[in-house]
Amino acid sequence: LANLTNLPVALTGMAAFRIYNHASGYKKNAKAAHEVLDATLNEGTLEDVEAFLPLFLAVTAAADSANLLLVSAVTALCAKSLNLAMGKDRTVRFFQKVLLGTTPALWLKVSLLQHTYHDLKDEGRRAVIVAILLALLAAAEPMMEQIDYIKNHNARVAHARRLDPIASIRRLRLHQFYNLVTFSLVCILIIASFIRFAGVWLCTDSHTFQLSAMQCLHATDSQRDVANVTHSDHI
């Protein structure tokens, strides 16, 4: 399947998808931030500073969606100052930057390295490796923040029950389950990409490790797939 994929088109499509994802995410979260602001202005008071926590969280989510790093850093710090457990919520950043951004991009970059290993030559291979390392570096901080947020689930439950002793924590539990599932999915895909990346050098014949068979792809199979694609193009 990888040999039938046009990698430049896939990478361009991935870039377009990330732009659309940031734009649509910002529009959605900015609307939510406006709604929270209106509710805060109508119900909150300056004496009840903690009432502004949902507003800071909503603005942080909108800024993360638009990739406004300075704004999101300031509002996230304000949220943490009001309540450390609730203020660590950067789920939107993790979802858009890591799950929908870095993880699929990392997979495609490893595929590019695998299937164009000889064409890239030394300079091209080094450039792709640097791009892979930079992608992992960019994902490191959001992943660490997400781990910290997941670990503080009990503190968020305690905060909700402090505000309302009979409060339902069903929504918090669903949110925690969602965070665990998405984080586990990201970890699995990154580990799989690492295995495929190692296969570029371990599979000296084809430079391609096939996860579905858990073995190196034979060069003859790879060449046959390419030949089939070329033959179909001529037809």
Description:
By secondary structure, the chain is mainly α. The protein is built from 9 helices and 2 strands; from the N terminus they run ααααααααββα. Strands 1-2 form a two-stranded antiparallel sheet. α1 packs antiparallel against α5 and α2 (53-65) runs antiparallel to α3 (69-82). Residues 226-235 have low confidence and may be disordered.
Distance between the termini: 20 Å
Question: What does the overall shape look like?
Answer: elongated
Query: Biggest sheet: strands side by side, in what order?
Result: 1-2
Q: What's the total helix number?
A: 9
In percent, how much strand structure appears in the residues? under 5%
How many individual β-strands?
A: 2
Unreliable residue runs = 226-235
Structural class comes to: mainly alpha
**Order of helical and strand elements:** HHHHHHHHEEH
List keywords for this structure.
235 residues, mainly alpha, two-stranded antiparallel ribbon, disordered C terminus
Give a quick precis of the structure.
With 235 residues, this protein is an all-alpha fold.
